[in-house]
Amino acid sequence: MEPTKPFSRRIFLQQGVTLASMVASIPWFLQHSALGILPVDGRVTSHAGVPEDKILVVVQLGGGNDGLNTVIPYGSDDYYRSRPQLGIVAPGKNNGAIELDKKIGIGLHPNLTGFKELFDSNRLAVIQGVGYPNPNRSHFASMDIWHTGSSKGRGDGWIGRYVDCSCNGSPQADAEIAIGRTAPLAMIGSVSKPVSFENAKLFQWMGKDLPSDMADPYEAINRAGALEGVTPGSQTAFLMRTALDAQLSSDRIRGAMAKTPLVAYPNTKLATQLRSVGAMIRDQMKTRVYYVSIAGFDTHSGQAGSHGNLMREVGDAILAFQNDLKAQGNDANVVTMVFSEFGRRVKQNASGGTDHGTAAPMFVIGTGVKGGVHGTHPSMTDLDNGDLKFTTDFRSVYATILDQWMSEPSKKLSSKVLGQAYPNLKFLRG
After folding, report:
1. Which of 36, 106, 350, 384 gives the lowest tally of CB atoms within 10 Å of its CB?
2. In this structure, are strands 176-179 and 289-294 parallel, antiparallel, or unpaired?
3. Which long-range contacts (CB under 8 A, 24 or more apart) does 27-33 make?
4. CA 307 to CA 139: how far, in whole Å?
């Protein structure tokens, strides 16, 4: 008879702990939630198998951000012919674009003043024309493609696979954290599952019936590897230690959130999420990947006002976050990646908006990036049935981050995570 395999610590946390307030006792929780989880291979441990010096923060712009009104090709007359009402005027004019590169004629949306400050301080890399072959214009299908890194949009998430590969089957409770009600597919691995929560105040245990053994100091239990009367390496030992890990993680996260940040953040949803991330980084959590998101980018009508407001929220929130990291002294250890599932069509529609399109810019931010404009802006005339043709595969962005930021370049981690090799780009410092 084969020995019983331990449960995945991450699956335990994902499926057993919803990261809302617990109203039942730990014993009930272990009996009714944890025991229904699928077993996986891996050793019983609470120690991470990943380095702690580099962190990735992912910002998702949900709905399909209009890349042409984010990075404006003001040097193209075809841009203005396609968008007679929506086109952002050239720099120097009233409410005009913010100059990025006069030679190639591109600028930022006028409300992205935060991005301009980051660009001028060499902390913002603009990656142009990002997409993938045979683009899908469905929100759900395209987002699945981005989350999995697969052209079919199937399988585990690319971040989850990274954690699986890096943790040798034993990911820690807080290796990846998503701010939100549910964790994105990108963070779901075969073994690893992320912690996710909306409100740190709800991220806590409420059980009152803890056995006396489980009230022992965590480190003592960790050193012993098992509790009295519990077989070392058993599922029970694993689950008890995992429960303690979860409790301690919740306490630590709530404690980090209670501290006043070193810089002021705007009073917006995205800024609040990034403030939480900043607090956890400042508290030296062992988390390698944080994930936040903002919705509202499906601008089929009345785009000018709504998109402008979103641009201001994104730019100001990310600037505050970067300044917070700098004030902490953690700016050299964090890279932020901003993406959306697709761009918008070149021509505006009859409702003062834009419809689902294809390629759009990505942004990679931090003191570890080579600031500036990278890649080629898609042609405004050589179109694919009215859509831009991508010039950079998004998986090359992932591969660059995986190989040059999240691991040693010699390991070529991206091939394992993405299933094949993709060219590394040059937006990170050596």
Report:
1. 350
2. parallel
3. 27/209, 27/211, 28/207, 28/209, 29/207, 29/243, 30/239, 30/240, 30/243
4. 18
Nearest C-alpha neighbor of 148 from the set 135, 134, 137, 162:
162
Give the helix, strand, coil percentages of the chain, each rounded to 5. Answer: 35, 15, 50
Please report whether residue 244 resides in a domain.
no
Does residue 110 lie in a domain region? yes
CA 321 to chain centre: 14
Residues near 195 by beta carbon (within 8 Å), at least 6 away in sequence = 13, 14, 19, 173, 174, 176, 177, 178, 183, 249
What is the helix (H) or strand (E) element at residue 178, kind and residue range? strand 176-179
Question: How many Å apart are CA 384 and CA 381, to the nearest integer?
Answer: 9
The total domain count for the chain is 1
Half-sphere exposure of 115 toward its Cβ, with a 13 Å CA cutoff? 28
Q: Tell me whether residue 349 is exposed, middle or buried, using C-beta atoms within 10 angstroms of its C-beta: 0 to 12, 13 to 18, 19 or more.
A: middle
The tens digit of pLDDT for each residue in 179-233 reads 988 899 999 998 888 888 887 666 554 443 444 554 454 444 444 444 555 565 5
Q: What's the CATH code of the domain at 337?
A: 3.40.720
Residue 159 structural domain: 55-169+182-196+254-418
> Looking at the domain assignment, is residue 40 inside a domain?
no
Among residues 338, 381, 336, 368, the alpha carbon closest in space to that of 130 is found at: 338
What radius of gyration do the chain's Cα atoms show?
23
Alpha helices, H only, 167-302: 218-224, 235-257, 269-282
**341 is written with which tokens?**
């599932």
pLDDT bracket for residue 4 (50, 70, 90): very low
Amino acid at the residue 253: I
In a domain, 125, yes or no: yes
Phi and psi angles of residue 56, each rounded to the nearest 5 degrees, phi first: -115, 130
